[in-house]
Amino acid sequence: SAVISQKPSRDICQRGTSLTIQCQVDSQVTMMFWYRQQPGQSLTLIATANQGSEATYESGFVIDKFPISRPNLTFSTLTVSNMSPEDSSIYLCSVDRVNTEAFFGQGTRLTVV
Amino acid sequence: GENVEQHPSTLSVQEGDSAVIKCTYSDSASNYFPWYKQELGKGPQLIIDIRSNVGEKKDQRIAVTLNKTAKHFSLHITETQPEDSAVYFCAAKYSGAGSYQLTFGKGTKLSVIP
Predict the structure, then answer these.
(1) Which residues does A106 contact at the CB level (< 8 Å), separation at least 6?
(2) SS3 sequence of chain A
(3) Which residues pair with A68 in a beta bridge?
(4) Distance CA A73, CA B66 (A)
(5) Do B43 and A31 touch (CB under 8 A)?
């Protein structure tokens, strides 16, 4: 298994500001993923972060809104930029290896007011 | 791409009864099917998974079955307890070189009534 630490666990932010969420893994992993989970909904993949290259974004998500960094094999950040109330969600970091299980962090509960 | 349908969306059972949650998938290339339990305020926790080379897997009170021909898989929880109350998500993916993305079902909110 993998231990994933996500910070912050929750935050309340003003609209128009940005929040950076950190994800730290206790072992080296090739792929890290960022998901959004809107209230009462399932998980939607925002982007895949591979160390040393640009993140790959899913349809409906763009780099200007959700810039991602992946400076090494154990760490990644997701920034939610120019926030609006519609960005209020749980943001989850996940790690995966080929032919193994995917594990999730505890999530960051974001409320935009 | 893959599409995963999950039913029911809500499920209430009496403590001690069994609970069954069903999922179907669309991509015949998918070969890995995990189930996650998400308690309020927490991230999804992997509780059991199955790969396409087996038809059933058990872990104490939890079991998962897979029918590759029909492209559906199910989670079975026996002797349910109040602490089983949570939202359960099924997922599917092709697990192989160059492919990592999980596709999730919409979730089932399970309530176990004491």
Answers:
(1) A4, A6, A9, B42, B43
(2) CCCEEEECCEEEECCCCCEEEEEEECCCCCEEEEEEECCCCCCEEEEEEECCCCCEECCCCCCCCCCEEEEECCEEEEEECCCCHHHCEEEEEEEECCCCCCEECCCEEEEEC
(3) A78
(4) 34
(5) no
SS3 B49: strand
User: Is there a contact between B46 and A102 if contact means CB atoms under 8 Å apart?
Assistant: yes
A107 to chain B, any CB pair closer than 8 A? The answer is yes
Tell me, yes or no, if A41 comes closer than 8 A to chain B by beta carbon: yes
Confidence class of residue B62 from pLDDT cuts 50, 70 and 90? Answer: very high
pLDDT tens by residue, A70-104: 999 999 999 999 999 999 999 999 997 666 688 99
Output DSSP code: residue B9.
Answer: S
Say which amino acid occupies B42: K
Q: What is the b/e burial string over A14-37, where b = at least 16 CB atoms within 10 angstroms of the residue's CB?
A: eeeeebebbbebeeebebbbbbbb
**Cα B104 from Cα A38, distance rounded (Å):** 14
What is the band of A51 on the pLDDT scale with cuts at 50, 70, 90? confident
Q: How far apart are CA A84 and CA A80, in angstroms?
A: 10
Identity of the residue in B36, B43, B100 whose CB atom sits nearest the CB atom of A105: B43
Name the residue of chain B whose CA is nearest to A105's CA: B43
Of B49, B100, B107, which has the smallest distance from its Cβ to A42's Cβ?
B107
